[in-house]
Amino acid sequence: MQMLPTVATLLCATILTAQQQAGESSPPTPAQPKATTAGSAKAGASRATGGGNLRALLSGSAAGKPEAGVDGELQNLKRSYMQALVQHHRDRLAAMRKQGQQPKTFSIGPAPTVIAQMAPRFLAAAKKYEGKDDAMPFLEWCLLTDPTPDNPTATKALAAFFTEPLAGPKCAAAVARFARLQKILGKEFDATIARVLELSRSDEVTAAALVARARAMKGTDKAKALADFDRALELAPEASFAGAVRGERNGLTILAVGQPAPEIAAEDLDGVPFRLSDYRGKAVMLSFWGDW
Amino acid sequence: MYPHERSLVKELADSPFALIGVNSDKDRTKIRKIVREKNLNWRSFWNGPDGSRGPIATQWNVRGWPTVVLIDHKGIIRFRGHRPNDELLHRLVEEAKTF
Question: Which of residues 16-35 of A touch B (CB under 8 A)?
């Protein structure tokens, strides 16, 4: 007797996935965001969303309030997309129920039709900021949101991307997320990264391209991925993605099963400092949690 | 997760076992209140004001929540995943006992 999730629950999970797909650089991601059972959709939503930010983003309140300037423009467009996406999934669920279906699983995620509807607005914004680093986040959205291979939005955005100067921090942040292009571009992925490396006009963008390449191959060629991560950190130790890259590097090396656990020395929730190694001699379950 | 974690802590209260959290809420005052209200009976590191992007989660390359890591009595990482692994956990507790 599994209960169907409420629309509100779905909505929450939907936004989450949408935001994740949009390459939003913030909240925690659930362990299994793509297809969920009715039950775990609920669990996922209550345990693993970055709820506050997302709700604010949708309602236009607090942190999600429309801002002035280019960042606000991007925020507003992403919000419009998420609203359209939520509506799309709501409609889909309603239609299924109308036909008497009680879906046990309900897959949520980016919807190519909704993305295609929104894409012209993102591309127009990118055009407006042509020649400037500010164009990059709009192109990034078009490149990475729809995971469908060879989708026209990504193709158009990629063409525009290569007419831009590849130098600024926003460009680098976008390029660092290009590993996701592997699915979309297929065989063209390697050539695309090579072209970014060739046209890059800053160490930061070059580092980002190395990061994208390393992320794409860390499952298949760990040694090469590590070499790319290391070079990227040498080139741009202060880049926005450097912290994450250090963590990923750890993930391939010192965090592997069989390795000694790195020390944690920090405060507890009451402000009292303690160490992970205080518990040596005991079996420890280290649980990364949040009450989002 | 909370009920499962609470019952683990109770069940293994007299065993060489510790559940250690790494909490990624930005607001420490709020989370302290939740810990009281929901009777969360384990100690947690705080990941700092940057929430999920704080230093501990970054160092440990945690990008999905929840993430569980099992560490044996010698301090060796034995498991990492997004779901609890009670079978291995109980084995590690037994290993720690015979140590």
Answer: 26-32
CATH of the domain at B54: 3.40.30.10
The span from the CA of B83 to the CA of A7, in Å, is: 26
State the Cα–Cα distance between residues A21 and A16, nearest whole angstrom.
Answer: 9
Residue B99 within a domain: no
Chain A residues with beta carbon closer than 8 angstroms to that of B23:
269, 289-291
Q: What is the pLDDT along chain A (292 residues), one digit of tens a residue?
A: 333 344 444 444 444 444 444 333 334 444 433 333 333 333 333 333 333 445 555 555 444 556 679 999 999 999 999 999 999 999 999 999 999 988 888 888 899 999 999 999 999 999 999 999 999 999 999 999 999 999 999 999 999 999 999 999 999 999 999 999 999 999 999 999 999 999 999 999 999 999 999 999 998 999 999 999 999 999 999 999 999 999 999 988 899 899 999 999 999 999 999 999 999 999 999 999 998 7
**Total domain count for chain B?**
1
Would an 8 Å CB–CB cutoff place A50 in contact with chain B? yes
Q: Do A258 and B76 touch (CB under 8 A)?
A: yes
Q: How far is B51 from chain A (nearest CA, A)?
A: 9
- For chain B, give the number of residues: 99
Q: Does A289 touch chain B (CB under 8 A)?
A: yes
Cα angle at A169 between A188 and A216, to 5 degrees?
A: 30
Put simply, whether B17 touches A (Cβ < 8 Å) is yes
- Rounded CA gap, B26 and A249, in Å? 25
| Reported ipTM exceeds the 0.90 cut | yes
